[in-house]
Amino acid sequence: MSAVTDSYFSALIGRLEALRETLAEPMSKASAAICAAARADQRVYVFGTGHSHMLAEEVHYRAGGLAFTIPVLVGSAMLHEGAVISSVYERTEGLIRPVFERYGMQPGDVLIIASNSGVNAAPIEAADYGREIGATVIAITSLAYSAAIANGRRRLADIADIVLDNGLPPGDAMIDLPGTELKVGPASTAVGTTVLNAIFADVAAELCKDGNPPIYLSANMPGAKETNQQLVKKYRPRNPHL
C-alpha cells in the first residue's frame, strides 16, 4: 500500500471513528424520527444533487434496506445528463419546488437532504419545502464547509430539524499531494452512506419490536422474489421509482 493510499484509509477511518461520538445524539434523533414515520405508515424521502444524489440511490430498493424510502431524483441536477450544467442547475433558484410537488410528500414524512457544502439553492429550497409540508428535515452536511463559503447566504444546517455534521473540511478532499497545493481523496459519499446505513440499520432493529420490518432481500437470496414483490406492491403507489 502506498503512502497516499494509506493516508486516505487512515483519514477516512479516523473520520468515521470520530463520528461515532459526535453524531451519537443527532443519529439517535434521526432514527427516532424515522421510526415514528414508519410506524405511522409515512415515507422517508432522500435528496441530493451532484455526487450527493448517490445517497438517495443508496437507500432505494437496496438489499438489506427499508422499503419506505423514496429517492428524489432530479436528472438535470445530477451528473449523467451533463456534469457541468448540473452545477448550474443546483445553484439556480426555483427549479426544485416543482420537482418535489410531484412526489406527494405529506405531513409526518421525513426528508433527508445530503449537501456537503450546504449552501446551494437546490438543497435550501428542498429544506424549505419539507418544512412547509410538515416533514421532519434531516441534513447531512459539513458545517465547516458551509461556514467557510456561506458569505451571508442561508445554510441548510440552519433550516433542518436535525443536523448530521460529517466533519469534513471545506472542499471535501482530505489528502494533501506532496509538492503541490492540491488535495485528493473526497470522503463525503463514503461518510454519508455509512451514516445513513447505520441509521437505517438502527431503525430496522427498532421496528423488529413491532414484527417484521419491510426490508428488501438481495435478488439472489432464497425467498427474495416473493418478499420483494410484496413490498413493491405496498410501496409503489407513493414511490414513482419502483
Summarize the structure.
It contains ten helices and seven strands. It is α/β, with parallel strands linked by helices and 242 residues long.
Describe this entry's structure for a reader.
It is a single chain. The chain is an alpha/beta fold and 242 residues long. The protein has one domain (3-238): Glucose-6-phosphate isomerase like protein, domain 1 (Rossmann fold, 3-Layer(aba) Sandwich). The protein is 46% helix and 12% strand. It is built from 10 helices and 7 strands. It has helices at 3-22, 24-39, 53-58, 83-89, 96-101, 121-133, 143-149, 156-159, 188-207, 224-235; strands at residues 44-48, 69-72, 110-114, 136-141, 162-165, 175-176, 183-184. Strand 1 (44-48), helix 3 and strand 2 form a beta-alpha-beta unit. Helix 2 (24-39) crosses helix 9. InterPro entries: RpiR-like_SIS, SIS_dom, SIS_dom_sf, SIS_GmhA/DiaA_subfam. Keywords: Isomerase. One of its GO terms (molecular function) is isomerase activity. Residues 34-209 form the SIS domain.
CATH superfamily: Glucose-6-phosphate isomerase like protein, domain 1
Strand content: 5-15%
Number of helices: 10
User: What is the helix fraction of residues, given as a range?
Assistant: 40-55%
Secondary-structure class: alpha/beta
CATH architecture: 3-Layer(aba) Sandwich
Give a short account of the largest sheet. 5 strands, parallel
Number of domains: 1
Uncertain segments: none
Oligomer: single chain
Average predicted confidence as pLDDT: 92
Structural shape: globular
| Largest sheet strand order | 2-1-3-4-5
Distance between the termini: 41 Å
CATH topology: Rossmann fold
Q: Write down the Rg.
A: 18 Å
Number of strands: 7
- CATH class equals Alpha Beta
Helices and strands, in N-to-C order? HHEHEHHEHEHHEEEHH
Pfam families: SIS_2 (PF13580)
GO molecular function: carbohydrate derivative binding; isomerase activity
Keywords: Isomerase
Domain SIS: 34-209
